[in-house]
Amino acid sequence: MGTTRRIVNITLDNLDDLPWPCRQCVFWELDPVARQHAEDAGDPGLEKEAWISAALLEWGSCGKVCYVNEVPAAFVMYAPPSYVPRSVAFPTSPVSADAVLLMTARVLPDFAGAGLGRVMIQSVVKDLLRRGVRAVEVFGDTSWHRPECLLPADFLLSVGFKTVRPHHRYPRLRIELRNVLTWKEDVEAALEKLIDSMTPEGIPNPA
Fold it and tell me: Where are the beta strands (DSSP E) in the chain?
C-alpha cells in the first residue's frame, strides 16, 4: 500500500488537526490584552475558530495542512497584517502594506528534518502568487531553540527570505514573489520527492 500525501487549506472542518498547543494558541490572532482575556476565560480555541472563520470569509485561504497517510504532518498560517493584531507589537514592525504576513508554521516531530518545512513555504508562495500578492514578510527569531509561535531566522533565510529590518532577536524578513516565479519544483512534486525519501518506518499509518 503506497504512501498518500496532500496539502489542503485550513478550514473550520480540519482546524482540530492542528497539533496541541497550536490549536488553542491565539498569539497572533489577538492583541496581548485580548489574548489574556481569552485564556482567562478558559477556551482560547473558540477565539481561534472565530478568527479563522472571519479570515476565510473576508480574505480567503489563511493556512495549509499537510497530511501523510491521512496523518497531519505539518501546517502553516498566513494573512494580511491587518488581520494579525500581534504583528504591531514587534520592534521591527510594521509589515509592509503590499505583503502578507507568514504567521507561523510547524512540522510534527515524526516528520521533522526531511525538508517538509520548505515544502510548506512553497505551498504558501504558490497560493499567494495565484492571488496576485506581491510579497511575504515574517518576523524571524534569531534565538529559536524549540517549536513555538515564531520561526527560526536561519530557516527563513535558507528558503529564500531576505532581511529588510535587522534586529538582534526579531528581524523582519521578506521574499518578493516575483523572484520565485522561476522556482522549477512544483509543490506537489517536491512533496512526493520528500515523502518518497523517508523510511517507511518513519511514516505513520492511520489506525
Answer: 5-9, 63-68, 71-79, 99-107, 135-141, 151-152, 162-165, 172-176
How far is the CA of 176 from the CAs of 94, 98, 161, in angstroms?
17, 10, 8
Q: State the Cα–Cα distance between residues 154 and 158, nearest whole angstrom.
A: 6
Distance CA 30, CA 32 (A): 6
- 89: buried, middle or exposed (CB in 10 Å: 19+, 13-18, 0-12)? exposed
Which residues are paired to 172 by β-bridges?
139, 165
**What is the tally of helices (H) and strands (E) in the chain?**
5, 8
Tell me the pLDDT of the chain averaged across its residues: 87
What was the pLDDT predicted at 205?
Answer: 41
Looking from the CA of 14 toward its CB, the CA atoms found within 13 Å total 18
